[in-house]
From TrEMBL:
Biased composition (Polar residues): 1-19
GO cellular component: plasma membrane
GO terms of biological process kind: amino acid transport
Organism: Halonotius pteroides
Nucleotide-binding in keyword set: yes
Domain ABC transporter, residue spans: 36-283
Keyword Transport: yes
The organism's taxonomic lineage, starting at the top: Archaea, Methanobacteriati, Methanobacteriota, Stenosarchaea group, Halobacteria
Example GO molecular function: ATP hydrolysis activity
Name of the protein: Probable branched-chain amino acid transport ATP-binding protein LivG
Length: 283
């Protein structure tokens, strides 16, 4: 039993009000310091437990690294947090709001955006058009507005276009804007994915192996962009296989092993931990 559970039992009769006050205090503290809280998440696929009571917090303003051997459940965790999978148990809170049962677009509205390990195919679109298929887009909404309020739809489209152009410039890839999205390199596509995610102005951005398949030059650029965005206030949770990449960017780093958080520490602590080394060798 945790301390808070024990005090709940002790106070059981006198204090549902007190408990509510405590919950509210915790929620307010979350709003200030913790962007993402994952509590006791569980997810099984048949007999396989992919997420096994995973718990951790991401503090505002940090770049948190999430590492672990292949199949440890890193991508599954992202799918659970961002609402693409339904968890069997546990809770996810974004800025103090319980988002556990929300749809991905609702969670995005609360400020949490994720990218995919394998970016979606963007056939028949230019890079600029692909940018505008925003993660916050809700089907139907703008269609109805097109009849009721065409002027505001036009204005919003103009603004989105301008924002997309600015972000492409920030990322120094505006020269790709009119290229077919299928014609750019895998590395450039990863940068476009990051740029596109930023268009939704996330408070926390979850990146799933952003450096995978990216050449060293673009990889450096990607790291610079993540650092720059972090300095401007975006919090990151970063899955990455490339140790040099993640260790140079992230602090703290958490290690996932068989769906469970094995440890959390500084890059140095993690790299020198026997348990972590064993997990990688065993995996
Ligand atoms: P990681 O990203 O750490 O490499 P994953 O989260 O992709 O690991 O996978 C963790 C485990 O869950 C793996 O054994 C994988 O095969 C399994 N898994 C992931 N998604 C599914 C799914 N949709 N259906 C069945 N098994 C899955
Ligand atoms: Mg993965």
């Amino acid at each position: 039993m945790t301390d808070s559970q024990a005090s709940q039992v002790a106070n059981n009769d006198s204090s549902s009000e007190e408990q509510a006050a405590n919950d509210e205090r915790a929620a307010n503290m979350d709003k200030e310091n913790v962007v993402l809280r994952v509590e006791d998440l569980v997810k099984s696929f048949g007999a396989l437990v992919a997420t096994d009571h995973a718990s951790f917090e991401v503090e505002r303003g940090t770049i948190m690294g999430l590492i672990g051997p292949n199949g440890a459940g890193k991508s599954t965790l992202f799918n659970l947090i961002s609402g693409f999978y339904e968890s069997d148990a546990g809770r996810v809170t974004v800025n103090g709001t319980d988002v556990t049962d929300m749809e991905p677009y609702e969670i995005a509205d609360h400020g949490l955006i994720r990218t995919f390990q394998t970016p979606r195919k963007l056939e028949g679109m230019t890079v600029r058009e692909a940018m505008l298929v925003g993660p916050r887009e809700q089907p139907g909404e703008s269609f109805i507005k097109l009849f009721t309020d065409p002027e505001s739809v036009r204005e919003r489209e103009q603004r989105n276009l301008k924002d997309a152009q600015e972000i492409l410039e920030d990322f120094e890839i505006d020269h790709l804007a009119t290229q077919p999205a299928t014609k750019i390199s895998g590395g450039q596509l990863k940068l476009v994915e990051l740029a596109r995610a930023m268009l939704a102005e996330p408070e926390i951005l979850l990146l799933d192996e952003p450096a995978a398949g990216v050449n060293p030059t673009l990889r450096k650029k990607l790291a610079e962009q993540i650092r720059r965005l972090n300095e401007q206030g975006t919090t990151f949770l970063l899955i990455e296989h490339d140790m040099e990449f993640v260790m140079s960017l992230a602090d703290p780093v958490i290690v996932l092993d068989r769906g469970h958080v094995l440890m959390e520490g500084t890059p140095d602590e993690v790299q020198n931990d026997e348990g972590v080394i064993d997990a990688y060798l065993g995996g």
